[in-house]
């Protein structure tokens, strides 16, 4: 009846949007190679329809549909919603790349302990992942002045990578060490590691280790963005890794932000 009409037209418009999104993404991929400035603009263009898809799905999700057809459609709505979230994450990454390239990453400074940042970052990750366990070591109660949201984004990137690239190990160590006027944070995994000749390229945008890239999804933006965020704070980022043994990604953060 009325509800199935609504769902039918939802399906049609979702399909149309999916096609145009796919088209836009292919276009973005081609443009990425040519002009970075455009990525920011294109990402904004993509974000607008996504926001409306999401609002539409939320509306349908809240509606009380009573016929059976409607119930069958719910799992698809959930799946579509998950894809929308994934696309949104990709677009956020693309926007961050544009911001970093244009030197326009704004910071909202705050005082917080590294323990708080690691806890909030892991809450988000370990909600859905039960294969790995995180061990927090060192002096996590040290307080830094930084953009908490951005530092958590870096931690989420590094911890997610540590999990993703260590399928045969279950242990991740986050170590917090104060060093004079800065703090050094290390994320260690016991996973596949990185081949020696690739180490120098690992923080370049779009770079992915060729042997691993076929087995794991990703765009090669996480480390580039993470290092950009840390550099913007006046810190640095690096890696120690051995192929087949594991990796330690580290970053430093000044305890007081240089501009503050
Ligand atoms: P993504 O993981 O989305 O490809 P990143 O920028 O986060 O992008 O990482 C770039 C590449 O570096 C990855 O594709 C992977 O080859 C390698 N890499 C990153 N973190 C690790 C890790 N902890 N262990 C092994 N390889 C890693």
Structural summary, described in words:
It is a single chain. This protein is an alpha+beta fold and 260 residues long. It contains seven helices and seven strands, in the order αααβαββαββααββ. It has helices at 2-34, 36-62, 68-101, 114-126, 148-164, 210-213, 222-232, and strands at 109-113, 133-138, 143-147, 171-179, 182-189, 237-242, 246-254. Strands 2-4-5-7-6 form a five-stranded mixed beta sheet. A two-stranded antiparallel ribbon has the order 1-3. Strand 6 (237-242) and strand 7 (246-254) form a beta hairpin. Helix 4 crosses helix 5 (148-164). The radius of gyration is 21 Å and the shape is elongated. The chain starts with a helix and ends in a 6-residue tail after the last strand. The chain binds adenosine-5'-diphosphate (ADP). It comes from Paradesertivirga mongoliensis. Residues 41-257 form the Histidine kinase domain. This is histidine kinase. Keywords: Kinase, Membrane, Phosphoprotein, Transferase, Transmembrane, Transmembrane helix, Two-component regulatory system.
């Amino acid at each position: 009846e009325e509800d199935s009409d609504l769902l039918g037209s939802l399906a049609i418009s979702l399909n149309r949007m999916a096609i145009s999104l796919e088209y836009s993404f292919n276009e973005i991929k081609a443009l990425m190679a040519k002009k970075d400035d455009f990525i920011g603009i294109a990402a904004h263009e993509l974000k607008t329809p996504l926001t409306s898809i999401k609002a539409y799905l939320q509306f349908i999700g809240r509606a009380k549909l009573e016929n059976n057809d409607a119930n069958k459609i719910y799992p698809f709505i959930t799946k579509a919603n998950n894809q929308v979230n994934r696309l949104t994450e990709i677009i956020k990454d693309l926007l961050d790349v544009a911001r970093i390239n244009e030197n326009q990453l704004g910071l909202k400074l705050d005082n917080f302990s590294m323990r708080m940042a690691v806890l909030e970052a892991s809450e988000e990750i370990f909600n859905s992942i039960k294969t790995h366990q995180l061990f927090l070591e060192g002096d996590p109660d040290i307080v830094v002045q930084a953009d908490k949201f951005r530092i958590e984004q870096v931690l989420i990137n590094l911890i997610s990578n540590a999990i993703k690239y260590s399928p045969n190990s279950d242990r991740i160590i986050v170590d917090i060490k104060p060093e004079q006027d800065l703090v050094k944070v290390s994320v260690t995994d016991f996973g596949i590691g990185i081949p020696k000749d690739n180490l120098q390229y690992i923080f370049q945008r779009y770079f992915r280790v060729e042997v691993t890239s076929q087995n794991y999804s990703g765009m090669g933006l996480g480390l580039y963005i993470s290092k950009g965020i840390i550099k913007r704070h006046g810190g640095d980022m690096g890696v120690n890794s051995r192929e087949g043994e594991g990796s330690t990604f580290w970053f430093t953060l000044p305890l007081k932000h240089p501009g503050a």
